[in-house]
TrEMBL record:
DCTP binds at R117, S118, S119, L120, G121, R122, D135, T143, L144, E145, Q163, Y177, K184, Q188. It comes from Methanocaldococcus lauensis. SUPFAM superfamilies: dUTPase-like (SSF51283). PANTHER family: DCTP DEAMINASE. This is dCTP deaminase, dUMP-forming. HAMAP family: dCTP_deaminase. CDD domains: trimeric_dUTPase (cd07557). Its EC number is 3.5.4.30. Bifunctional enzyme that catalyzes both the deamination of dCTP to dUTP and the hydrolysis of dUTP to dUMP without releasing the toxic dUTP intermediate. InterPro entries: dCTP_deaminase, dUTPase-like_sf, dUTPase_trimeric. Belongs to the dCTP deaminase family.
């Protein structure tokens, strides 16, 4: 069962569902809009060797970041041109990781899906790839996998980037996500890189 706005408000008022910060204006008929934080991760590795810890750098923007498609021709001169013309803090190419400002806590009977906003889909920008599912009992901020597919796109800190859709399980989970041993992203409060290398321990 998908939760309505009434269901979401009821769970928040009963302290069973946490969305912090919460803005009543971001509540839709059956979803809640979440906003983009000011922190991002860019990977440095030549290839993704998933058995090893990936190298990355974390950046923080004051206002905006320009994301270019992977096949976009980008050099030092172009970067400086974009920064000067569009007053952006960073210019990046390819996929980047971002995060929501919102910290959520799901009870063991509620799961959620993250979905990018349709307005951003209409400019061919995706903010999640295959990782839109949020397990029951999850507590933390949502990491976003951001890719521009057509032209460079300027994103702004604090803008509405996507929405959460909540579902009620038929029965509560026996063990919530953050209670499960080995949950990689429990209680994350900032953008996090892939920790898939942990799966290879003991191989």
């Amino acid at each position: 069962m998908i939760l309505s706005d009434k269901d979401i408000i009821k769970l928040i008022n009963e302290n069973k569902l946490v969305i912090e910060p919460f803005n009543r204006e971001y509540l839709g008929p059956s979803s809640y809009d979440v906003t983009l934080s000011d922190e991002f991760i860019i990977y440095d590795d030549e290839i993704y060797d998933l058995s090893k810890e990936l190298k990355y750098k974390k950046i923080k923007i004051k206002r905006s970041i320009l994301v270019c498609p992977i096949n976009y021709t980008l050099n030092k001169e172009k970067i400086e041109y974009f920064k000067e013309k569009y007053n952006v803090d960073y210019v990046v190419k390819g996929g980047i990781l971002g995060s929501t400002n919102e910290y959520i806590e799901l009870p063991k009977e509620i799961t959620s899906f993250y979905q990018g906003r349709s307005s951003l889909g209409r400019v061919f920008l995706t903010s999640h790839q295959t990782a839109g599912f949020i397990d029951a009992g999850f507590k933390g901020k949502i990491t976003l996998e951001i890719v521009a597919h057509d032209k460079p796109v300027i994103l702004y800190s604090g803008m509405r980037i996507g929405q959460l859709i909540f579902f009620k399980l038929n029965t509560p989970a026996e063990i919530g996500y953050c209670e499960k041993k080995g949950s990689k992203y429990a209680y994350q409060k900032t953008v996090m890189p892939s920790l898939i290398h942990n799966d290879f321990k003991g191989f």
